[in-house]
Amino acid sequence: MGRNGGKFGGSADFGDGGNVGDGESGGDGGNAESGESRGDGESGGNGESRGDGGSGGKGGDPVVRVSGTYFPVTTLGPGRRLGIWFQGCPLACPGCMSRHTWDPEGGRRTTVSRLLGAWRRALAAGAAGLTVSGGEPLAQPEALERLLSGAAAIGAELAPERRPDILLYTGHTEAELGRRPPWLRAVGHADALITGRYRAAAPTPLVWRGSANQRLLPRTALGRERYGPHLARPAEGPRLQVAESPGGAGVLLYGVPAPGELQELAELLARSGTRLHHRSWDQPG
């Protein structure tokens, strides 16, 4: 496909209390925004702590299960962004590159306050926005609502001139959102949504979207300003961002690959003598 260029983002330690923030990946209910490949000889460790994430939700701080966080993400929205991937997806879209985010008991537990701490640190480093994906974020609606409302307030407080925006990926459609009040409350804090299940048979050239049915929906004045110019814009430049996993044991991918791009990457690495194991887009078995 050749459209992913050769410019890749670096990593920084913007964790939320569990060795997070420098190399996790996730999809969003099959939207194929991100995935991961573990390098030779690895058993699939991902540099993440797998404990309870800290406070366990005491004091009204919701517990949330996440696949990981990363800063700076440059392929899932405008500018340098903090990416947060929720764990668990009941949609299980065929062709999803992020199967490792499907299991609701996978990933790790943390709290909303720790994720907001990562957001504060990303803002201090100049983040232009927050992108939340998965997994399916709306499978944990209470935690998602608390995260997005808190992130909006913190962004307005710490970076009023920069006006950081919030982009939320969900595999659900706009009509489905309207039938679930908890979902509507959660998405009400996002400046823009990308909605709809991933359909491998319906590729699209449009930026930040994985298939032609998916819609980019600005929801606020800031969202219309930031995302309105991109409603019909094709992707330009890199569609995938590549980062080394913690400890150098694997490769982590962030973005929306073009059809066949993942296989092309695997073949390119194979020709150079690198064989991938535990690829997140492989079928089980």
TrEMBL record:
Q: Where is this region: Disordered?
A: 1-63
Q: Which cofactor does it need?
A: [4Fe-4S] cluster
Q: Which UniProt keywords apply?
A: 4Fe-4S, Iron, Iron-sulfur, Metal-binding, S-adenosyl-L-methionine
Composition bias, Gly residues:
15-32, 42-60
**One Pfam family it belongs to:** Fer4_12
Q: Report a single Gene Ontology molecular function.
A: metal ion binding
The answer on whether this UniProt entry bears the keyword Metal-binding reads yes
Query: What protein is this chain from?
Result: Radical SAM protein
> What organism is this sequence from?
Streptomyces hoynatensis
